[in-house]
Amino acid sequence: MLDGTMTFDTILIVDDDEASCRRLEAFCRRWYRVDVVRTAADARKALSKKGYDLLILEVCLPDGDGREILKTLLASQPDPPVVLMTSAATDVDTALHCLREGACDYLPKPYAPEALELALRRAEKLGRQLRINRRLSGLRHEAVLLGESAAAKTLKAAVVRMAAATVPVQLIGEPGTGKSAVARAIHARSENALEPFLKVNCAVGSERQLEEELFGSEDRPGVLELADGGTVLLEAIQEMPLSIQQKVFSIFREKRLLRAGRERPVQVRLIATATEELSTLAGQGRFLPDLACEFTAVKVPPLRDRLADLPQLVQHWFATEGGRFGCAGAMLSPETLGKLGEHAWKGNLAELWNALERVALTAEKGRTIPPGAFSFLLSPAGFVDDGPLLTLEEMERRHVLRALAYTNQNRTRAAGLLKISVRTLRNKLHLYRYQGIDIGECRQSELPMIAPSASKSNPRKEK
Description:
Helix content is 46%, strand content 13%. By secondary structure, it is α/β, with parallel strands linked by helices. It has three domains: 10-130, Response regulator (Rossmann fold, 3-Layer(aba) Sandwich); 144-299, Rossmann fold (3-Layer(aba) Sandwich), CATH 3.40.50; 303-378, Helicase, Ruva Protein, domain 3 (Orthogonal Bundle), CATH 1.10.8. A five-stranded parallel β-sheet has the order 2-1-3-4-5, sandwiched between helices. Strands 7-8-11-6-12 form a five-stranded parallel β-sheet, sandwiched between helices.
């Protein structure tokens, strides 16, 4: 069942079926405050008076078409997750159009309580992500393109070229360099900027889950279908199994896919992120050569190659995020900026944002921040350990757990610091649990120990 840590507070149900409304309202009132209306006109009135965290919308209403209603609702209240309900098989195509327009899920009637709960879970997850994206979009979407260093100028020029083209793009770079933000910048500057931008992390989940997320299932469209006309970002594409690569290549070439016994037109732009060039992986037998040839490579530089941009990056962060931490107008002294320029920044932009967040928690509004505030970064990399000599396996385990603690259990960021894939990190954690090891043993008190050495003790490249 849904737990008590909910993102949403109030939801609006729009449905002209009285019996359906009663069941749905009773189910949702266990977690939310619920308002119910029966027509599109009443829905518009309700939205004009009150903001809602979630909309549950019947596609066919007495006074409106589902697609047009959705456009109106999204215009009235930007970015609310919308769950659609369809009462007839003929409504499914309309529902699919609405999904492409911005709805997050749909439920064919009649639906089981389990299906409704799953839809609410998905909407909750999307709601949390939307809030994070709204908060960080100005920071990470634009900040990654800031700066006047040679590396930054080269990246900006590449973004302009790729935005004007339609070819698939491969963004190559170390973890934390902002590859996903560069992908969004390319999409935002393209002629299809108003079309969907959807992403899939190829390193998360099983092969079957990845296949269903991309291509859909009998009763649910996948990302490639939902993003028709727009862009699909394939994160960590080097983790995609060869069998799925072949299907992606076929759909890309033929511009259609087969789902539920029916061919559906699909035309999307592919942007992929990876740590190595796909042509290199293809030469090693780890990637489909035909698919690798379709991508144009763009390198996203590490932060150490654009240290001249640090002042502008830091200034932008405090201008956009400082107010959220109560330190608007705070700045770094020239001495502090100089010290930051001496740091290795193995975690790249992601490590910089994390460091600024930690400092902002104790910074004062309008004050100049001294170098000592970043002592957790600037402490010596080496240390003497008088404890017992550990095996390599034990040292690795402790290092993995420290990386998780340093990133507040964020597996993606921890994997980036460790220079391994999220899938590899997940497999290690499964092994630790199987061995009966308490993977929660690493505490925040150990954070200063991980900052300077997180990426030095494991120099291997991500597989």
